Amino acid sequence: MSSQAALGAKALDDRDYPTAIEQLTKALATNPSNPSPLWLIQRSTAYQRSAQYELALADADAALHAAKSRARREFIATAHFRRAVALHGLKRFGDARLCLTWCRKSNEKEKGLGIWQAKVKNDFDKAEKELGSDAPEVRTTVKEIPDKVEENVKEKSAPLATAAQAPAPPAVTSKEKIRHEWYQSPSSVTITIFAKGVPKDKAEVMIGEQSVSLPTYIFFNAKAHNYQLEVSFPIGTTEQTYALDFSPLFAKIKPAESTYSIFSTKVEIILQKATPGRKWSNIEGDESSLQDSSNEPVGNVMQAKTGDKGPVYPTSSRSGPKDWDKIDDADEGEDQDVNSFFQKLYKDADPDTRKAMMKSYQESNGTSLSTNWADVQKAPVPTHPPEGVEAKKWGS
């Protein structure tokens, strides 16, 4: 590989598309009569990711000819794939779908093929429904073997265009200026991240449910379900990454019905509430917000509903349930002080401290409690039973 091609490939990996186009153009100029299909595919990718779809298509067509002349089946498949992606950018969904079919015929394991087939099919069906079967978006005019690249170059001056002639990449919001806002309706919570130039192919949005163990002094039943939202995406061509993490969310959601969309100036996330009508006072939750739809605590505590007696718990004792009201006042006061201390510690802690407390307590089987996330995240927390006590697994 030439030094220019190596620099172009690195710039492509770094998402520096103008540099990638410039260096790959120089590399291709060294042998214009027999260009490398790989370099053409890489430059087509750089053009496509900088929204220069006509140039991307011309390079993908050229890559297909170069791959066929060298009998490189893997590049033939990738060239068809790059043609499809460029055609999708031009809103030629019928042609894009056909190119993906040719790609699958050459290599059904082409990276990203399944995702793009689903995406193109969705856009094709939508366009056909809204615009009709005769619309340019759904017609198929593309050829499996395109016209000679030289003719395309002469007509459009496409593949030989330099970085200086290329339009500037889309504006990108710097990391320190990205902000988010949220609002809610009775049925959903909408979170908007205001950021320009978020790359759709690089952004990650995770909306899901996670079962975690919680300290018994926070919940009587130590199992709870956290619903979380994680968002991350690179900032332009820099090495910075923006990340937003709400874990746990304030209340239960329906992950399968929640959605997100990436626009040119923002990312919009719509979380569907599991309990319609429940008002969220914040996006992120704590032990006081992790309640079910009936607003009962997450645990299985059996609270007394009438009278002044305290809670009654299931028991196998022959003498019946224990009357907790008769516990020695001094011991009871001491236990309440300890519980109050840990509850306040958890409530006032930052997210990393809470994660450290949960992880250490869960993994150590209730024998350790740490507030140092930097230390806890490195490895599982071992069980440390009190002196004279042996730790055994259940059933052993």
From TrEMBL:
Coiled coil: none annotated. Residues 328-337 have a biased composition (Acidic residues). GO terms for molecular function: protein-folding chaperone binding. It comes from the Eukaryota. InterPro entries: CS_dom, HSP20-like_chaperone, SGS_dom, Sgt1-like, TPR-like_helical_dom_sf. Pfam families: CS (PF04969), SGS (PF05002). Residues 312-396 form the SGS domain. Residues 387-396 have a biased composition (Basic and acidic residues). Residues 175-284 form the CS domain. Residues 156-175, 280-341, 377-396 are annotated as: Disordered. Belongs to the SGT1 family. This is SGS-domain-containing protein. It comes from Coleophoma cylindrospora.
